[in-house]
Amino acid sequence: MGIQIIYKPLFEIRFLHHYFLDKGGKGSAYKFFDSAEDLQAEMLAKYNISNFMEVLPDDKTREILRKNNCVCRNTKTGIIILTKVTKNETGKYVPESAFSDNLKFRFGFKITDQLFLNYTNLPFLKQKENKIYFFENKSESEIRLYPNLHKKAEKIKLDTLYNDGEILVNQTDSKTLIAEKITIKDNKPEQTFTEDFLVNNKPIHYVNANDLISYTEQILRIDTGKKEISSGLKIEIKNYKNEQITPKTEVFEDGNTIVQIDFKGFQDDIYKIKISKPDNSIIENKSFYVFQSHNTFNGIIQINIKSDNTLYNVLDDNNVLFDELTKKTFEIRFKNRATTWRYVGKKFQNTTIEHGPHLLTKSGFVSLSIKNEHGDDVIDPENPAIENLKIEKQSNIEKYNLISEIFINS
Q: In b/e form, how buried is each residue of 170-184, taking b as 16+ CB within 10 angstroms?
């Protein structure tokens, strides 16, 4: 009998997008992906992330995979990492390679659908903002909850206005809230919030603004926003392991005091930069992701062999693989957008009829009844196309509303 070579799952990453996985409908007719196993099976059967994104290991991870007898496989829901294994004396599978506790795998993802933001509830970034999404399998005092690789959203603040669709959580973390359209009443802005679906009386968490991190390519230039403060300026730079590092740093005046840090020769990673005055007052204190070459990714996923929370560990305490039922399957969830639907055209005397907000979905239909120019009911008018998303800013308010326009002229 020949030698048997066995590969088993080390971990899996699943991307779940509710625009594709939910079934549209109004009120109770809406079918949420997690609400029933038969619905999950139905929707996953026709789901494929290649319709909107691609995921691939970075160059260093390709080398790690090769050296450690691992294989990266694309799946319809994401990627799975397989590792070559042997059986130990108890019959459990052990990786043939000895993974160090500080080993990390890193993957990048690219959004391939130009309309992705039209149906995905994520912030609209300004053109000059160099930001990417960063996900990892660390709890960090429960800012993430297993199996999520993304963080929990910001807690809602009283007397604060939010962009239409912004994802939040309530003060007790018991509900996910979605900000609705801002309206004006008695010359004052008002806003209500939709409570998202609960699964087993627990909220679902989604990718949100807290997952964004600034990035730079080798040279990081920080404008302090202050003039003539270079004397005695304290600059502290730490790597991902919280170790002090000393890249070449320059401080000069260019309108304001500028701090310029040269990361050439350092590995792609997260770095923490703290800039403070001689009196220890902080000017800048944030993290950046540094790329050594031109960045083409919309997001980075980092999987650590050993986490700060045992739930996130890839291997058990004895460096044994988890079995098929308990193998580490991490999730990244995207919430589908909810928009106000605006019907316009001759059928409505060229005025506008608004309805909603309604969640956008690839499957299903939202059944509505609206009035035409004669006051008659129009039953089941068409649902909007994702191309027809309109971002409207309220006057004197630096926030936007989201409108899906539907033109009906016949």
A: eeeeebbbbbbbbee
pLDDT, one tens digit per residue, over 10-40 is 999 999 999 999 999 888 899 999 999 999 9
**Measuring CA to CA, which residue among 296, 280, 251 is closest to residue 59?**
296
Query: 407 and 401 in contact (C-beta within 8 Å)?
Result: no
CATH topology of domain 219-291: Immunoglobulin-like (2.60.40)
Q: What is the mean pLDDT of residues 268-282?
A: 93
- Two structure tokens written together for 149: 């690789």
Closest CA relative to residue 409, chosen from 385, 381, 388: 381
Strands 338-344 and 400-407: parallel
111 to 54, 136, 382: CA distances (angstroms)? 7, 18, 28
Other CB atoms closer than 10 Å to residue 143's CB: what's the count? 12
Residue 63, phi then psi, degrees to nearest 5: -70, -40
- Per residue in 137-156, pLDDT (tens digit) is 998 878 999 999 999 999 99
Q: Are 24 and 51 spatial neighbours (Cβ–Cβ below 8 Å)?
A: no
Determine the 3-state secondary structure of 216 from DSSP. Answer: strand
User: Cα 388 vs. chain centroid, distance in angstroms?
Assistant: 23
What are the sequence ranges of the domains in the chain? 6-149+297-334, 219-291, 338-407
Q: Give CA–CA dist 153/11, Å, rounded.
A: 25
